[in-house]
Amino acid sequence: MISRLLLLVLFVNVAGCGTGSDQYDTSKMDLKPVPAKVSSERIKGAFASGASLSLGAELKPLDSSPIKDVRLDTTHKIIEIAPGVKFSAWTFGDQVPGPTVRARVGDKIRFTMTNRSDEMVPAVQLVAAPMMHSMDFHAAMVSPQGKYRSIAPGQTITFEFTLNYPGIFMYHCGTPMILEHIASGMYGAVVVEPRGGYPTKVDREYVIVQSEFYAKPDPGKRKIDGAPLYVLDGERLRASQPSYTVFNGAHNGMVGKPLPAKPGERVRLHVLNVGPSKTSSFHVVGTIFDRVWIEGNPDNQFRGMQTLLLGSSNSAIVEFMIPEAGSYIMVDHHFANASQGAIGLISTSAKAAEKELEHHNIPASMAPTDPDTVQGKLNFESKCLACHSVGQGRKLGPDVAGVTKRRPDVWLYKWMKAPEKMLETDAYAKAMLKEYNNIPMPNQNLSDAEIRQYIKYFHWIDSQPAGTTAVPGAH
Amino acid sequence: MISRLLLLVLFVNVAGCGTGSDQYDTSKMDLKPVPAKVSSERIKGAFASGASLSLGAELKPLDSSPIKDVRLDTTHKIIEIAPGVKFSAWTFGDQVPGPTVRARVGDKIRFTMTNRSDEMVPAVQLVAAPMMHSMDFHAAMVSPQGKYRSIAPGQTITFEFTLNYPGIFMYHCGTPMILEHIASGMYGAVVVEPRGGYPTKVDREYVIVQSEFYAKPDPGKRKIDGAPLYVLDGERLRASQPSYTVFNGAHNGMVGKPLPAKPGERVRLHVLNVGPSKTSSFHVVGTIFDRVWIEGNPDNQFRGMQTLLLGSSNSAIVEFMIPEAGSYIMVDHHFANASQGAIGLISTSAKAAEKELEHHNIPASMAPTDPDTVQGKLNFESKCLACHSVGQGRKLGPDVAGVTKRRPDVWLYKWMKAPEKMLETDAYAKAMLKEYNNIPMPNQNLSDAEIRQYIKYFHWIDSQPAGTTAVPGAH
Amino acid sequence: MISRLLLLVLFVNVAGCGTGSDQYDTSKMDLKPVPAKVSSERIKGAFASGASLSLGAELKPLDSSPIKDVRLDTTHKIIEIAPGVKFSAWTFGDQVPGPTVRARVGDKIRFTMTNRSDEMVPAVQLVAAPMMHSMDFHAAMVSPQGKYRSIAPGQTITFEFTLNYPGIFMYHCGTPMILEHIASGMYGAVVVEPRGGYPTKVDREYVIVQSEFYAKPDPGKRKIDGAPLYVLDGERLRASQPSYTVFNGAHNGMVGKPLPAKPGERVRLHVLNVGPSKTSSFHVVGTIFDRVWIEGNPDNQFRGMQTLLLGSSNSAIVEFMIPEAGSYIMVDHHFANASQGAIGLISTSAKAAEKELEHHNIPASMAPTDPDTVQGKLNFESKCLACHSVGQGRKLGPDVAGVTKRRPDVWLYKWMKAPEKMLETDAYAKAMLKEYNNIPMPNQNLSDAEIRQYIKYFHWIDSQPAGTTAVPGAH
Q1: How far apart are the C-alpha atoms of B377 and B363, rounded to whole Å?
Q2: Whole-number Å distance between alpha carbons of A440 and A409
Q3: Which of A244, C16, C110, C364 could form a disulfide with C83 if both were Cys (CB 3.0 to 4.6 A apart)?
Q4: Buried b (16+ CB within 10 A) or exposed e, A163-196
Q5: Closest CA in chain B for residue A148
Q6: Rounded mean pLDDT, C134-163
Q7: Where along chain A do its domains lie?
Q8: Closest of C356, C347, C115, C371 to residue C243, by C-alpha
């Protein structure tokens, strides 16, 4: 009697920590999906619908229905991926990333998608012509030829599948050239809970989707609302040299609007690295991941991690404590990626305070539109705010507001190019060194192109109404 | 009595799932290998031999002998890494990748290798001069200075070692400049089963070796059988910018000849990422990895993964179900790599059907030899087949067969460069738009060089006998 | 009675292998750190102090004190990252990488740092101007805005925190532009043991820190002790294209001075990949990792690995046996990285013997200073030593010492550019082929720039006193 009881306990234990192993019994899985249907019926109305969808970083609680009706239409749209950078994107549900689907092992997804890439959007039509699109759900176990087939503009596809494994699964367009469809914005996440839920309780749940953009100013110099249009840079794309790496679709995503949390709370992030081509070394400054569940499955558990490496189309759940009041900074610790915009905040205060600016790039206030000026602004904000403010007075170095009125361009050029030489020969430079406690301006090894961009940015600042372009320095 | 029985059960459990922990008792491992022998005896005959060897993707069952005699000679050889791309390679066993060795923990490998890089091969001799080579087995625990020493052309080395750990282990040439020896093709896999076998039963076993090629047309413009020779591109190699990323040695490896499997079957892939310098984000479209054993060792288990990240010289076993009839596409989900050829099929039909073309690049039929034309063909097949066929009639857009007879080159250039401008001003373009349901040609942001390559490819098509160059479009 | 006993055993088992799960009870963790203090007091004396610090690869035993006083001041310093490459670095504790802190879960770190980047160092001042710096400990759970704030030159910050998780944690400067601060050398490791120690016993413990350098000759052509100065290459940095990838701060780190170990010993490496932007595929030639503890935590265990993939700011403990006498070569098996210097030795002999040179790049003897010559030397040592020596006599090919006296530069250029053509037409080349057993020189596909660098290096050799530049070939 005793022995039977104990053996039962043992059996459960052998089955592994977490969620129970019978969920992996492939003989009980639904592996016989019904065929997809394609029609020429064009569905109108909202581009995305379904009770299981979350549109932003905040993840809605699980909808209890065992059948999830999900509709995600494809559209072509201009989105702003960084301040002043209006990019010609292709979308699911008219947003990048697409909405997040939340469901549970055993649930069925009934999916509908109309290819609406041909619907008239002012200015967009000429930029991104209608084209074939499709849907590939990594959460499904189905024949790609049936369910993931490409449909033409105006067509609608419907198919369904059962969720067999817990995890965070990518979805994306699978129409060739797939690389371009993903890089243009066609991706999102499906969060599948274990049948019995997660083994931990948390206070907050967010979705973080990392992805790369490969953007260049339109060679045809077209404009959107007066601002220059950016299009896909095929050369950078094929060489895996992104121009922006971002969270949730935007440069410095969630810096301007941090994700809220309170001291002492436990936070769960559902992290998906879309790629399309790079790894992410995900880290949150100021805390340690108590648990990491690789691919979002509690059976794949690590403890006490500082950083999590994810390949393209890899995912994980990370959970951690918020130790004290402050802003905890999400970054890709491949820091060249962080410098391209893969930065976001989880903050105990409603909005990012000035002090929080120290440890990350700065959200934009007013934005220029000329590409060089935009680049100058981005570089300045990531590189110079440690010592300079814009219109907020002197810090370790002078306020740059008004600098184009104080010094001629040629002087600014020489100064940025080789401050150490100017300090030997130029009277103004020498006086400035004295005024600023003998802390010289470091040589930043700038290229001529970079210096031109800075000077353009300074001129733009000085051409705006006073105060509108202010950016506080870090100190 | 009862308690003893139960404690025994517990002990087994504590020892970990899978293969039992005593296999890791380092005090019982063979760590005293006998010295290697190098002789000037030149062995003739087959370049590879041994009952434990598998030459292709299909993995032969375990040979039961506890001692595995393995012979892998080094050769220099011209191999075709992509349609029309004849590359000057260095090999083990006269193939790239080299043969796969299969063995079991406790088995002994008795290895022999003759450096036959100096044997006369027509045309090859001048391309790749004889040189030093060596063998580095990651499966062995031996002094590199003894066993992995370089031998000169005509020399033979023999050494032996015992397999102490289960896993999938890389082998490669370890002669400086190692990077170049690996990039030239000198690698393969050793599959070592746990002493007691694997804890699961599967229906199919395959070996997938991912690797990068860094190829450029020979600066000396030499030819092989009338086709241009490609040689190692040292600049790309050092910058980790591959020109091809492939499975089992060939661009779109196993697309033309898919690996067979049946609906409901369980498939085990032994995956090795050779590199030499990049990570792989391995994924199979249409299914989910039921089990992943990192480095091929069942003790390192993950469940329910969509994608698996592997560094250079990392490996894993992945197992998954084939849910229904169809073709399941292996890709590196670092999609810039997939676009370079890291694509293959596991299919329930004997050969890839037309429909399967939708989700991947297309196997070549007839192949051009001029490098620009080859590139144009590759680009066309990965990028344009969603909407165009070659000689198979109209799809979403026109059939490109005959296009050079219908339109002059200058028109084709303008059209590919800026279709949206042509649609505003050119009568032919306007008429075509109308004929094709007002779905305009998208601007692909092509460089002038790319457009030239497309036009060369179109001319090549139109110079061939009708029908010989046909490639079906996806729709 | 029996059943209770057994259930107790079961409970321990459920708690997981290794270090016990109560260490993860977040309700017992110290998550209420006291505020940091910043003062204008300038502390003098040693740049680093603390009983818990190890300055080099050898890791000192754990200091038993529950409170670890750690002082790491920031300095600006010229360091030699490769033979002849004097780089303008920023440091913690006046070395790159900074000292390693060793502690245990539950210990408290009391940290002090003075920003001494403004202290006069001959020649350095003008190169790297004083600037703001800060400290970000991945081992801490604290608000980044409080503890990781930037301090100005001359200021001192102090803060404390408790170690809640075991692992190997990165520390680095967190002042924008963070990417540049890390790339300039501001990083190190904190090793935190589990509360009850590690579950294995080892004979040796070392710390291996991998990092990238992005260096270019100073555009201003400044010199340090007569040698050219190298500065941060911002363009390469942002494009993630390092010029050197190294272990413990130096090209071919620990090749000249191998880490000692004896046959039969068990070695534990604490490996941290700093990045700032690349992954590492860490491997030791000639052995297999018996255990791998991801992030340095025994609860995250893998067995029998050949290679370990680490993202930027990822770490791991690897343990392995030294099977027999020899030199075991640590490499980043992303071999383009190994070729940039990510190579080191663990050797059973006091110093690297000649034979050991076979499997890796070669430590420098005398070093040139001209950047082209330096590059030529590095390329030669990684690429040509398989067949040539410098001043050590003939090997498979001729000794290159004296080659500029034997042949004119134009001949050397033609020979390296296209040896196969010279062998058809040039009498000297034909005679040499005959003399060297008809083994021709391989075409290395060198660029003109590379050939120029080789020729410069050969001239440098021939301008030095005989014997001072000798480098043995591999065979």
Answers
A1: 11
A2: 20
A3: C364
A4: bbbbbbbbbbbbbbbbbbbbbbbbbbbbbbbbee
A5: B359
A6: 95
A7: 33-196, 206-347, 367-463
A8: C371
Beta carbons of C336 and B294 less than 8 Å apart: no
Task: Work out the average pLDDT over C19-41.
Answer: 82
Mind telling me how many Å the CA of B194 is from chain A's nearest CA? 20
- Rounded Cα distance between A438 and A433, Å, is 5
Tokens of B15: 């020892």
**Closest alpha carbon to B296 in B204, B198, B161:** B198
Q: How confident is residue B56, by pLDDT bands cut at 50, 70 and 90?
A: very high
Question: Distance from C181 to chain B by nearest Cα, in Å?
Answer: 23
Quick one: pLDDT at residue C298? 98
Q: In the structure, what pLDDT confidence band is assigned to residue C388 with cuts at 50, 70 and 90? A: confident
Q: How many CB atoms lie within 10 A of CB B91?
A: 28
The first and second tokens of residue B36, run together, are 């290697």
Q: Length of chain C, please?
A: 475
* % chain A with pLDDT above 90: 61
Domain C33-196 class, CATH top level: mainly beta
- Give the pLDDT score at B161: 97
Which of C203, C288, C361 to probe by mutation at the B interface, max B CB count within 10 Å? Answer: C288
8 Å CB contact between A389 and A466: no
Please tell me the predicted confidence (pLDDT) of residue A445: 79
Average pLDDT over residues A208-223: 93
Q: 3-class DSSP state for residue C376?
A: helix
Q: Which residues contact A2 (CB under 8 A, 6 or more apart)?
A: B2, C2, C3
Report the mean per-residue pLDDT for chain B.
Answer: 87
> Do the first three CATH levels of A33-196 and A206-347 match, i.e. the same topology?
yes
Query: How many angstroms separate the CA atoms of A13 and A9, rounded?
Result: 6
Contact C295, A306 (CB under 8 A): yes
| Chain A residue numbers touching B361 (CB-CB < 8 A) | 176
Is residue C1 predicted with pLDDT exceeding 60? no
0.90 surpassed by complex ipTM: no
CB atoms under 10 Å from CB of C250, counted, come to 22
Looking at residue C472, its pLDDT comes to 53
- The Cα of C313 is separated from the nearest Cα of chain A by a number of Å equal to 6
Enumerate the residues of chain C whose CB falls inside 8 A of the CB of residue B31. Answer: 264, 321, 323-324
The per-residue pLDDT for range A269-305, each reduced to its tens digit, is 999 999 999 999 999 999 999 999 999 999 999 999 9
CATH fold of A206-347 reads Immunoglobulin-like (2.60.40)
Q: Which one, of C357, C306, C472, lies nearest residue B145 by Cα?
A: C357
Which residues from chain A sit within 8 angstroms of residue B303, using beta carbons? 24, 165, 297, 299-300
**Beta strands B67-72 and B108-114: pairing type?**
parallel
**CATH code for residues B367-463:** 1.10.760.10
pLDDT of residue A74 exceeding 50, the answer is: yes
Show the tokens assigned to B140. 């062995």
Asked if B321 and B357 count as a contact pair (C-beta separation under 8 A), the reply is no
Show the tokens assigned to C381.
């040592």
Residue A297: partners with Cβ closer than 8 Å, 6 or more residues away:
A19, A165, A166, A167, A194, B302, B303, B304, B305
Number of C-beta neighbours around residue C426 at 10 A: 16
Distance CA A121, CA A89 (A): 12
Q: Please report which confidence band the pLDDT of residue A19 belongs to, taking 50, 70 and 90 as the band edges.
A: very low
Poorest-pLDDT segment among C266-280, C301-315, C431-445: C431-445
What is residue B286's predicted lDDT score, i.e. its pLDDT? 97
B147 touches B36 (CB < 8 A):
yes
Residues C450, C451, C455: CA angle, nearest 5 degrees:
120
Phi-psi region of B383 (alpha: psi -120 to 50; beta: other; left: phi over 0): alpha
